[in-house]
Amino acid sequence: MARALQLPEGRVLRYLGLRVVQVVPTILAIVVLNFFFLRLAPGDLAEVMAGEAGSATPEYMAMLRQQFGLDEPLAIQFFKYMGQLFQLNLGYSFRNSMPVLDLILTRAPNTALLMLSSLVLAVALGILFGAISAQWRGRWPDGVLSAFSTIGFATPLFWVGLMLIVLFSVELRWLPAGGMRDLQQVHTGLAAVGDVALHMVLPVLSLAFFYIAIYTRLTRSAMLEVQELDFVRTARAKGIAPLPIAVRHVLRNALLPIVTMTGLQLGTLLSGSVVIETVFAWPGMGRLAFDAVFQRDINLLLGVLFFSSFLVIVSNLATDLVYALLDPRIDVP
Amino acid sequence: MTSPFETLALSRRTLLAGAGASLLLPAAARRAGAAPATGGTLVAVLDPEPAGLVAGLTISAPAVAVSANIFDGLVEYDEGFKLKPSLATSWETSADGTVITFRLRNDVTWHDGTPFTSADVAYSLLEVTKKVHPRGNAVFANLTAVDTPDPYTAVLRFSRPSPVVWAAFNGTETQILPKHLYEGTNPLTNPLNGKPIGTGAFVFKEWVKGERIVLERNPNYWDKGRPYLDRVVFRIIRDPASRAAALETGEAQYIPLNPVPLSDVARIKASKDLVVETRGFEGPAPMYFFDFNLRREPFGDIRVRQAFAHALNRKALAETVFYGLAKPAAGPVPSYQTQFFATDLPQYDYNIAKAEALLDAAGLKKGADGVRLRIGHIPSAYGEDYRRAGEYFKQALKRIGVEVTLRNYDLPTYIKVVFTEYDFDTHSAWYSAYPDPQIGVQRRYWSQAIKKGTPSSNASGIADPEIDAVIERIQTEGNVEKRNADIRELQRLAQVKLPSVNLLELTFYRAYSAKLSGIDLAPFGGYQSLKTVWVGA
């Protein structure tokens, strides 16, 4: 790996600068499209809130619309929004009586915690399982792990979550059924960390379940492919033991597609977290976005989309850099 | 395996208090609720998260369920819909019905320590309820002034008698807000809506969006000795199966609204550790109905509407789709509101042959494929149960040769299509009848309630001079007897003219731990303050 770090620093910086310049119009285009596409959805926040209230008078609804700025022409709304955005103000969520940025900043860490833990678990176990599968191809460990990954692939996330709750919370009473912390007692310090960790077990397992399956399959096929290559044969001919070959020669070279996948997966993990956050009452950003859709809380939704598109772009950039680190032949353009 | 509620958290103090009580009282006496235990934390569950915690401003069922703990109204109802004192100790109405005088408590302070006075009442009614409450400007339309001759007297002046206001003075509908904190601000955007200051039994502590709302006991509450609980935590859990799990594991002890899917109610009921309570919703009074769009043919023909009414088996609907948690409605007013409910209303029995004869008479003959009419139906988007009811309508109407295409939408689209565009043939939903038909029932039948873009208004488009006349009499009649006669007449006309089929009185329910005592069973109990609740042994 040390070789990869010998990339001339100036080039990396120039590359980063170039990518940032590319990112700005991309994000701008995303914001503009989001703004106009979201207005195509029928119904608005005023109607939803009046619906929640059980009834309303037309005067009340007109007042709400004026309050939310929905009575102004679309073009004006758009320019106002863009003006705010350039001051990094994501607007106000009337449905949540809170600035959008504050809402996102309180919820994003919770989702990040869930996503990253699941991702680390999924990558670690997936690579381990995949390597085992490839190493014992056609034998019983391969069979067991292939069956596991097929099930993992085919099972809906919410069902896994509910079944884990039924087993570990309702029946065995080992783990909490949902939420992020114990609400009946207030924990502090280390106890609080332990409390959150305990609440994380089931959601992280559920969310990781599907991705373990993906990484197992991916690692297995990538390793099988690399095993056939000449340099592996050479290594074997030199009399290197099977385990160092598997780890240093095969696995390292099989990691590239996994890195690509992991980078791409960050986006899909966010959508998976909507389901998991719903089932486990986890106060994260996926659920925030989901509710915003059904409440037509456009300001909030725009903010979340802006924020997540930014994250996806950053993670793509990070993926490219990791790529270059893993394989020195890949050049930073 | 441990019992589900061994995990019910009690502070050490409560455990000791509980232990003390158990030494002093025989078990039977405790179970009978002789001595409320104080202390402890109650975890309740909410869904969806409210928009704000001041239900006088952003009213929705979950907002009220939290807010009623923080704010009081002028009065409450007892189990028989009778008025009980709350912030007001007594009241009298002038002979002509245009002046109502409230005497207020003089020992009440806001949570910030400021004394509560009649100025708060005047401000709340005129500036909040009349202006920014979704129903307030309709219910209090005739309220012209509130005089405050002294800090503990509020005199409400009306331009004409308005008996309906008595159905709206309770704290779950009309809250009294602190004038000194709201005056001069825009009440809708006042930051206090997220961290409210009230006079209620519990004091707001914190609101972590998407996760929890925490309230703590108000040590200075005017209702001495109450509340019993130290803390109430409302958790937000969006998934119904997860709500059931929270209840079954004891992580939550009280779910006031839509706790579990209807299909799970039997399982929860069977558990000896859990209670399903159906009382406490007679105030909101959900009434389920099937609307015809009278703007469209062939629904202008009364025979077609009658045929539909005869083809829908309301008893089967109640028992299958709603798992018995509903009963056939005899009219638009629920039968348990005995002060208004009219007996001997015209009914439409389940009778396929009659329905087919009516359709034949209306000229809708069956085609070669057995279909005489193709229509669309939009079920309410407020829950899965109503979509399943849509499936029932489809099957039931097929039997009389009516082919139904179901159109399911998400909530905002549903509101737009049904209440703004009126783009439907038939539609089914429930509206709250509320404790007075003038608030909840007339809106389905009054021509003035055809309010484009307004949810839960007159969607069928009925505009009938006879019905309008009786509704307008109800609104202005000061004599209770005469008014009740008019309300009965409205129910008769609703059944005869049939712009919509009254299907079911829905039974809403709460679920909670069997260890809780003192659950409020008043007509708004499902939404009411938890000040009477304690955790027993």
Question: Would you give an account of this structure?
Answer:
The complex is a heterodimer of chains A (333) and B (537). Chain A has twelve helices and two strands, in the order H-H-H-H-E-E-H-H-H-H-H-H-H-H. By secondary structure, chain A is an all-alpha fold. Chain A has a single domain, classed as MetI-like fold (Orthogonal Bundle). In chain A, helix 5 (100-135) crosses helix 8, helix 7 crosses helix 10 and helix 9 crosses helix 10. The longest helix of chain A has 39 residues, at 189-227. Mean pLDDT of chain A is 85; it is low at 1-6. Chain B folds into two domains: 5-23 and 55-191, Dipeptide-binding Protein, domain 1 (Alpha-Beta Complex), CATH 3.90.76.10; 286-506, Dipeptide-binding Protein, domain 3 (Roll), CATH 3.10.105. Chain B has 16 helices and 21 strands. Chain B has helices at 12-24, 27-31, 61-70, 118-132, 136-139, 179-182, 240-249, 262-270, 302-311, 314-319, 352-361, 384-398, 411-420, 437-440, 465-476, 480-497; strands at 41-46, 75-77, 83-85, 88-93, 99-104, 143-150, 153-158, 202-208, 212-217, 231-236, 254-255, 274-277, 286-292, 326-328, 373-379, 402-406, 426-432, 500-506, 510-513, 516-517, 534-535. In chain B, strands 14-18-13-17-15-16 form a six-stranded mixed sheet. Chain B has a four-stranded mixed sheet with strand order 1-10-9-8, with helices on one face. In chain B, strands 4-5-7-6 form a four-stranded antiparallel sheet, covered by helices on one side. In chain B, helix 12 (384-398) links the parallel strand 15 (373-379) and strand 16 (402-406). The radius of gyration of chain B is 24 Å and the shape is globular. The interface between A and B is large, with 60 and 69 residues.
